Structures are given as C-alpha cells and as structure tokens.
Amino acid sequence: MAGHGAEKHPHGADRLCGAGERVYSRAVRRGRVPRRDAEPVPCLLELALLHPDPDDMDFLVPTAPQEVMTRLLRGMYDEVSESHRRVGSAVAAFERYAGLGRQVQLSSAAGEGTAIRVLDGLSRIQAAMDEATEACTTEVLTVQPGGIRREHELTEGLHRALALRGRGVRMRDLYTHVARHGQGLLNYLELMGDAVEARTLDEVIDRLILFDRTVAFVPANADRTMALELRHPALVEYLVTVFERLWRLAIPLTAPLPDTGIEGISHREQSIAALLAEGHQDAVIAERLGISVRTCRAHIARLSETLGAASRTQLGVRIAQAGLDGAPRTAGAGAVSVPGAAGPGSPTGR
Helix 86-103 to helix 18-30 angle, to the nearest 10 degrees? Predict the structure, then answer.
C-alpha cells in the first residue's frame, strides 16, 4: 500500500503535488490535521513535512515552513553541481512556503516543534542520530536495557561511536549486569578503549541516548520504530539527573559484582528474590533483569532448592528470613539460619 502511494507521488518537497500542498497548507493553518487526511498523500510523511503529534498520535503536525525552506536550501547546495535545473523550482517553493509562514504565528508552535520531535521510522531515527553525532563535541550518555548485547546491535551504531572517539568525545554507558556475559560487548569496549566507560546495574530504565546534555533520544513505542527527539532544556536536564543517579549506583564493568554473603546464592538470584518479594511475576522479573523467562525460572528453582522451599509461598517466607527481600535487617539478622540451605557444592548459576 505504501509502495503504491509512493509511485503516485514521485516528487520532492520543492514541487509538491496538488493534493499534498492542500493538506500541508491546511496543517500549517490549523496547527495539525487528522492522520486519515494524509493517507491519500503519503509523500507528506515520506518528506517529513508532517509528523506524528506527540500529544495525540491520531493527528499529524506540520514541520514549520521556515524549517522546510532551510532543508531545501541545504539540499540544493549539495545537489547544485549535479542538477542546475532544480534551482528554479526550489526558489518557487521557497516563495510558497514563505507565504504560508506569513499566514500564521509560529513563534510558540515552532518552539514546541523543536523541543519535542517525533521520529517515525528507522531511517528518520538513524538520520537524526547521525546529525546529533556530527554536532556532538563533549560527551554521550547512554542507557542500554536488555541482556546480552547482540552483535548487530553493537555494530549498528559503531560508525557513530568511532566518529565520536576520533573527536575526543567521552562516552558513558549503562547496561544490566547480564550484559557482562556477552563477548560482543567486551570486544566493543576493547575497540573503543578509554573513550568509553561502562557500568552495570541489576536493572535500568528504557533506552536513552544523550548528546552534550542538549538533545536526548528515547523510544516512542514498544518495537522502537518510533522515537522522541527531546531538546527542551528542562526535559534534558531531568534525564541527565536520572542518568547520573543511576551511574553512581552502578558497578564498573571492570569490577566484580558484590558477593551476596549467603552461601549458594548468586548476585542475580538475590535480585530475583527481591523482585519476587515485591510480588512481580516471572515474565516481569525476566524483562527487568534482561534475561529470558526460562532462565529466570531456572534461577527461581535454584533459589527454592537452596533455601529449602517446597512452594512459592514458602519461598517468600524463606526469602524474608534470609534477608533477600531488600527489607532493613535488624541486629543479628545476618545470623539467620535458612532451613535447607545448601552447602558449598550447590549450583549458583549466573
């Protein structure tokens, strides 16, 4: 369907079709249009003249005509050596957009548009990330949720990371503890050298990328085919504060995870026990710790065996008795004897 629409609109922003110009003009005058109005003119989304409204995804908001003009002018300079014939039509387009710009007051709307921008589609997300990378001069902060980093995930942004390293930009990355067991991440960090510092936590927030504390990128849907580009100073500062607090709690990747102090129970099983005590289901625990549900249940089974619990209810009691529920311990609580606790030969897992 999308492909068919694209064939019917073989043009650029400098020479919109009649239907596209009518819908875009209406969007500029009204501030937004229903998404259904743009279905007959997919060119407006493809050319980024319309993009989803962050407050209501059923509506589309227009890119400011001034921004369109700037984009066209930049593209024209890039292509002028190859196609002089487009200069005339581009100039005419500038005049049309300039006329639209005089019809509305865009001062406040333009501020909102640049503060929060919805990036619809992987190509637009990648383009925005590349643009932010080129402008970055000082630091990049990232939060990478999930478990072991897959090779394609690490290589996807490798060109950006290498470009940043070449300019002396410092990078700090937060991962879950599970990521420590991925050889791909270790290879990536070895390649990047001192340019990247990594730390890990039991669990982290959703994906976050911050450039120079001025622009941030966060997912806008579950499958990460949409993203928000945030430039509002208050929003960005808030996200920086969240990152810095997580960073202080995290453990450097070069340091070992702390011992639980309970024989036969690993650090990961301690984290699972605390989440079980909070009443979370297996699937939720697995997602938060970046492991599979199957692996999570295997750890729960080992916890039950180590703590001598015959049921989930009894396991909850044993977790509390062992002080694995995260609750404050009273004096002498560390000497609690856990019935059925296994000896040195018990499997701990990772």
Answer: 30
200, 250 Cβ separation under 8 angstroms = yes
Nearest to residue 309, comparing CAs of 334, 333, 276? 276
What percent of the chain is predicted at pLDDT more than 70? 73
pTM greater than 0.85: no
CA dihedral angle for residue 184, residue 253, residue 176, residue 241, rounded to 10 degrees: -120
Among residues 249, 163, 166, the alpha carbon closest in space to that of 202 is found at 249
Alpha carbon distance 169, 194 (integer Å): 10
More confident residue, 100 or 171: 171
Whole-number Cα distances in Å, 3 to 7, 51, 122, 342: 6, 19, 17, 62
Q: What strand order describes the sheet that includes 116-120? A: 116-120, 226-230, 215-219, 208-211, 139-144, 170-176, 196-201, 251-252
- Residues 18-54 have pLDDT tens digits of 888 889 889 889 989 999 998 888 888 888 889 898 8
For the residues 58-78, what does the mean pLDDT come to? 76
240 vs 233: CA distance, rounded Å: 10
One DSSP character per residue, 51-70 reads EEETTEEEEEEEPPHHHHHH
Q: Return d(Cα 29, Cα 38) in angstroms, integer.
A: 15
Cα–Cα distance for residue pair 106/28, rounded to 1 Å: 9
> What pLDDT sits at residue 75?
62
The DSSP symbol for 104 reads S
